[in-house]
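Below is one such protein, fold included:
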Amino acid sequence: VSTQSTGESERLDVLYDKGLQNNVPGLALVDRKEILEIEPYCTGGLRAIHSPNTGIVDWKRVACSYGDDFKAGGGTIVTGCEVSNIKDVGREIRVDCKNKTRITTKHVITCAGLYSDRVAVQAGGKKSPRIVPFRGEYLELRADKRYLVRGNIYPVPNPKFPFLGVHYTPRMDGSIWLGPNAVLAGAREGYSWSSLSKKDIAEMVSFSGLWKLAVPNLSYGMKEMAKSALLPLQLADLQKFIPEVKLTDIVRGSAGVRAQAMSADGSLVDDFQFDDSCPGMLHVRNAPSPAATSSLAIADLVVDRATASFNL
């Protein structure tokens, strides 16, 4: 995690202290000289936190492994079943799907991501927080330029926004992802500018919380949209770390959509949030990044909450 200006040093120190409090192994503050020993081409860094035990994983394989463990324990995974209704019918809870599948059970835990608010409300849960989708678009470093990056290089987070900012991320296949930006998506599954949903757009436009966030941060939002359209603007952020990266060294890559939970007052929910207002149900309303990295710890938390909510 590297600073590019002296003004970021205080935030870096706060982040370092949090890492120590959480017993992150091997954590160290390094100066410019030490940065160059770790990342020789990161000449834009002034001070940094070095975490030598940070690694990368193939998340698809991890998720599939979780699924295998679940099935080995007697669980069943059913896909392609979009939920149309969840109803407490007395001694059981009935889950109906659009493909006519019906599941009856005593308890329900929902973790619906981009649809967590809709599923919870459908079951009789609270209306807040709402999910607002933000797309993060990545660039990729050309194969012949991958030598410029040895490990993960991150900016100092801006506490005003939950988005991590443009960073360098090595992948398991050897590729280097650059980014992402953060732009309001035109659909809950809006992975490109052409992905638009009238229903989702109407829902966002009518949500006062989004306007309360957007108006005072209009300049930031417009800049992110400009970066999405114009690669040189994204390149400028990347060059703050590694000036040697050129426009000819990058190509457009993949995109993801962040399920950003937002309160009616426009504040961004940056912590875990559960809704147990429906008898026999626990709705995970927000599990912010790094949810994948923290997935096992989050699972323990969900089990604890479910045990308490269901009086198990």
Observations:
- Residues 295-309 form the longest helix (15 residues).
- Residues 123 and 186 are 26 Å apart (CA to CA).
- The chain has nine helices and 13 strands.
- The longest strand covers residues 250-262.
